Every structure is written in structure tokens, then in C-alpha cells.
Amino acid sequence: MKALITFVSFFVLILFANLIQSQPGSLDESFGTGGIVTAPLTTHGEYGYTGTIQADGKILVAGFQDVSGSQNFAVARYNTNGSLDNSFGTGGLTLFDAGTDADAAWTMALQDDGKIILGGSVNNQFTTFDDYALVRLNSDGTPDNTFGTGGLVMTDIDGHWDNAYDMVLQDDGKILLAGQGYTNSNRKVCVVRYNTDGTLDASFGAGGIAINVIGCGVEKTRAIALQADGKIIVAGYFNEGTDDQAFVTRFNSDGTVDNTFGNNGTATLDIAGNKDRFWTLYVLPDGKILAGGTTDPADDPDYLLVKYLSDGTLDNSFGSNGMSLNNFGVNDLLLDMIVDADGKILTAGGGFSFELVRFLDTGYPDTDFGTNGIVNTSIGNFCFAYSVCLQADGRIVVSGHSNNGNDYDLTVARYHAAEGSYVDEQSAIIHHVNVYPNPISGGQITLEYVIDNTEVLSAEILSVSGKKIDVLINNQLRAAGHHEEDLRMPVNLAAGIYFIRLFTEKENIYHKIVIP
Questions:
Q1: Which of 22, 213, 293, 320 is the most exposed place for a label (fewest CB within 10 A)?
Q2: What residues make up the domain containing 252?
Q3: 101 pLDDT exceeds 80?
Q4: Three-state secondary structure along 335-367?
């Protein structure tokens, strides 16, 4: 007997019941209250510093909870309409106490099996200094006891202050965690690579740890990204005299410094008289590199967006001589960015408001977005945006935290990216989707669906993090009506949660499957 499996469609969960008109940069009023979600999760303060979106559209925001100066890892999961997902943690919130007074998640990544990795720092109770830290959670928010000790891994670089701020996962599942490690009597660029079980990867750097000394002063790493060839890009800033200089440095895949990049492995940026800092990175499909951050004349930060060629030299076709400097107001902080399907650059940050800016691929603000390219959203007494993500339908999710007058709350806002209409359930083209058997047994499934019009149809398998695993149907013409198709699954899929994406030019349907 065929089992009816309820399908989840982005067009059902996140859109209005009627046609919705949107303007680029306007708040999506179908999300939360007027496009914004902010509410105390506990009687204490929660701070959001990193966000991501699962393949099913659910939103994760992580950071820490502060209780009278004692901090614990915190991560919340929201449904696609902005409500808390009560199937996650306790009422949608998971807290993880590493047993110290200073536990903080600054970065987050999703594994293909749905597990969640938090990266950051903890205070080592034996040395009293901070260490690199990873926490892995199961998809329901419980600690993954197969990872490290009770889900926690701590790494002491050199017995002093070691703070990690960004993370990226390799295709083989290994984890790269970047920050600064205290060595040679100062903080230096430090990347640590872990195996999938949380142990150090001894084939990387020296015993799993790679260090690059850029200057004589303090070096602060804030971002990491991977190239298609496996080389590792890291960005941040260092102090040289009275000014901060921004840097981008590159490691080979084995952790050695890539001396073919920039000047002996590093490209530095010094705008005379300013404090220049990179906070975020993005590697473009053509291998060019975007670095974003701030330049700080007279202690009033401005947006700094820089584009490098793959060898570390400035791309002079971007902005003015490779740089886009913008003063949008007071305290402009560019803290995160992502690039959309059209090549436009979305950045988030701001001081005291959620500041969302869209740039053209030339480096200039996109005047079709918001007001001359910028959207400022005031939330609570004041607020800070630290993360920007894109949904599968192109809508923009910005997260951080806001002040409610007493404490801080995790805060999420969703924005429209394009002008136009979104369809409701009644106008959906594909419906009555089933997959059986589910959980999957054997190497074949039957995909059942109804399509209202003759359409060119595709289907593919996605990991829970949205990564394409395999193509099941590739641009095949299907007549209107009821269909049942026997499809062969890829071999050697690891146990876990996956999604089948069934789509036409006009619509996407996402259906959850389980590999036991």
C-alpha cells in the first residue's frame, strides 16, 4: 500500500494565501510580525552572531546566552514562517554548557546528514585562557555524543588566548576552523583542521594546526573560505603602528602558506590614516575573491568592499581600482555577505540597525534595491545584524540580536529580493507529491506527483544543507496529469535526511526522504 508522505513546499510555507506584491528590499510581511521575529527566548539575554538555512527552509541562528556574565552556546531554529520550531531543543532553543564561563558560537555549518556544527571559543578552566571550540548537535538539537567528548572539542594552540571566528566544511566532511592563536608572544593567523569525528587532522599543518605570521603586531582572523581547488582563503586585520591593515592570505590544502598569492602568501590593504578591517569573504565561481569589512576614518566606520584576482592582486574593474568605499550614515559595519544567482552582492551589518545593502557586480550600490541600494531596519532600542543568507526562492534572511530595554534577543528579518508576485497553494503547478518507500530501502524509489500543465520538469537530490547530490530527472518534458516514475537512487548514500527537489521553470517543491 502506498504511504502518503506529506510534502513541504516553499510556496505553501513561506508565502501568503493570496498573491503578494513585493518591492526589492521590502520586509516580507508573511514572516513573523511584519517581516521580523524577535522575542525573549528565556529570562536572560541571547545574542545571535551566525545564521544559516536548512534545505527544508528552516532557519538556524546561533551565538550565546548570557547569564550574569556567564555564557553558554545557544542556537534557535525557526520554521519558514518565523515561528519557533518546537521539535528542536526545548521549545526551539538549544543551550550547550561547556562547563566554563565564556562559551560562544561565532560561526555555524550544516553537515549533509543534518547535523549542526557550532564553532567558537570556550574558556579553559585549567589554563584560564580561551581555546578553539567545536560543538556538534544532532538535527533535533541534542548533543552528538559521537563527536569529541559529549559533543564538544576544545583545542589549545599554545597555552594562551586562542579565539576562533569562522568555519567552513570541506567536501570530504573535514572541518576548517579559523581565528587567531597565541604563538611567538602574540596572536597570529591560525587555521585548524579536524577530522569528521572531531580529532585533529595530523596531515594538515603541524599536527592539524597551520599558522601564518603576517606582521609584527596582533593579527585577528575573522573569515575563511574554500576555493574549488581546495586552497584556503583567510581574511582579517592586523595592527601595524597606529593603524589596522586588512589582509587576505592563502594556504595550500595541506596547511602550508601559498607563496604564489599576493606577497609571499598575503595581500594587505592599507588606506592611509584609516583602520582597515576585513570581516567576511566570498570566493566567486570564476576564482576571484570578495573581501568585505570596514575602513575607519575619524572613528566612524564606512563600508569597505574589495575584489581580488585569484593571485591576490586587486581587480581594477571593480569599484574604484578594485575597491568600493561607501558612507551610508553613522557607524556602517559590513560584517557578512553573500552573492545571489544574478551575481549581485548582498551585505549585512550596521551599527544600531539592521543594515542590508545590495551591490551590483561592478561594486556600486544597486539603486533598484531599497533606497539607493540600502535598507535600514530599526528593531527594539537598537540592533546589530551579523549574518545574511538566501532562501531557495531568493528571499533574504538577516539575523543578529536586538535590545528590548533589559536584555538582548535573537532577531531575524526577512526581505523580498525582487519585484513581482508569489503564487499561493491554489496556483501551484506541482502537487500531491509522494515518494515511496520512505524511509528508502533498496536502490530504487517511486516518485508520484500531479502536474497541472505540460512542463519541462527536473528532479534532484539535495543534502540537508542544500548541496546537490545527484540528478534524478534532467529537463524532461512531462504532460499534464498524474505521474508515477521509478527512479534509481545513487549508491553509497550515507544514512541521514535528504530532500528531493522537484522543479519547473516556475516552481520548486522540496520533499523530505530518509536513508536509514
A1: 320
A2: 27-416
A3: no
A4: EEEEECCCCCEEEEECCCCEEEEEECCCCCECC
